[in-house]
Amino acid sequence: MTKSVGAGAAILIVLFSLAGCGSSEPKEIPSTVTVISTETTTSDPTTETSEADETDPTDTTETTASAPPGATSATDEGSFTMPNLVGEVLQTAQNEMQRISGNPVYYTSSSDATGKGRRQMWDRHWKVCSQSVAPGTQVPVHGPTIDFSVVKLDETCP
Fold first, then answer.
1. Residue 89, Cβ density class (10 Å: 0-12 exposed, 13-18 middle, ≥19 buried)
2. Which residues, other chains included, contact 150 with Cβ-Cβ below 8 Å and sequence gap of 6+?
């Protein structure tokens, strides 16, 4: 028991000492980058399917998926309508931007609305006070970076 505790402590000491290594120059760190992964699956051609799973090759009926009523998403031209995200949790606002832009890695920035320059390390602990693009504005998918001005959840927006 003593050996495992001593070994664990030694590992922690090494990790903490390595954390201090490196350049003393400050580095620019992006406020937020969220990545959502998607999985693709393929079926094994050797597996059998039931008659209910098979499609009629002579059937030319097209089916299309539609968005839920009231949903806004990127258009074929590569733009979307900016929603009003004021009052939302920062993580929720970022997720919504990724959803409506159709880009699972759509980048938004965030800044401390109090002017203290605090970084938003845990997006779920911040709420949106204002946004750099007005709600209802048509935004190109590859357009400007949208900045959310935020405060911590228990704070009042200035």
1. middle
2. 90, 110, 111, 112, 113, 120, 126, 127, 128, 129
- For residues 120 and 31, the answer to whether their CB atoms sit within 8 Å is yes
Q: Is the pLDDT of residue 145 over 60?
A: yes
Q: How confident is the model at residue 133 (pLDDT cuts 50, 70, 90)?
A: very high
Q: How many CB atoms lie within 10 A of CB 144?
A: 9
Q: Supply the pLDDT for residue 142.
A: 87
> What CA–CA distance (Å, rounded) separates 89 from 85?
9
Q: Are 107 and 33 in contact (CB under 8 A)?
A: yes
| Angstrom distance (rounded) from CA 92 to CA 120 | 14
pTM: 0.54
Cβ(133)–Cβ(139) under 8 Å? Answer: yes
Q: What is the pLDDT of residues 51-70, one digit of tens each?
A: 444 444 444 444 333 333 34
d(CA 141, CA 132): 15
Q: Which of the 8 DSSP states describes residue 114?
A: T
